[in-house]
Amino acid sequence: MGLEEKAGNLGVITTTLESAVNWGRTNAMWPMLFGLACCAIEMMAAQASDYDLSRFGMEINRASPRQADLMIVAGRVSRKMGPVVRQLYDQMSDPKWVIAMGDCASCGGVYNNYAIVQGVDEIVPVDVYVAGCPPRPEALIHGIMFLHEKVKREKLAPRASDEALRLDAVGRQVATTGSRS
Ligand code: SF4
Fold this sequence. Notes:
Blueprint: H1 3-7, H2 17-26, H3 39-47, E1 70-74, H4 82-91, E2 97-101, H5 102-107, E3 128-130, H6 137-152, H7 160-177
Parallel strand pairs: 1-2, 2-3
Helix pairs in contact: 2-6, 3-6
């Protein structure tokens, strides 16, 4: 039996393994269920009926880091919270991605003081930064779409952030208990 007879009228679709895997990853990217401050309200709005993040395969926020592959850091990160955020990240399975939502998570925002981490990238590798105080749901969705485009171009080889992860594990104590040099 020829290939045309097997495929019928559907035709033949060719793709690469990477494209197929990354297509699956972008269409079932489950965020972890947590929020740190006011930005989390906008994150919740993005998931509610008006904006409906479930359109992008993200309807389920997982309350366990073991079942999540996207960490949305929504809000300021206090120095005390830093080790907890890092532990949650470490507990997520690979591959995993991080979005810093809002000015506080991206760079400390208005909290330029000793108690607040001046950017969550001190603690975990960040893939996308979303500016705003707070960013509107549209901005978060734009950031997620941007992340999807990044993921579609990823190779199946170990990611650069995985390498950074090993480096971060060395620098973690500095990041969470000391000040940024
Ligand atoms: S960026 Fe603005 S809205 Fe978001 S956590 Fe900081 S102060 Fe709150």
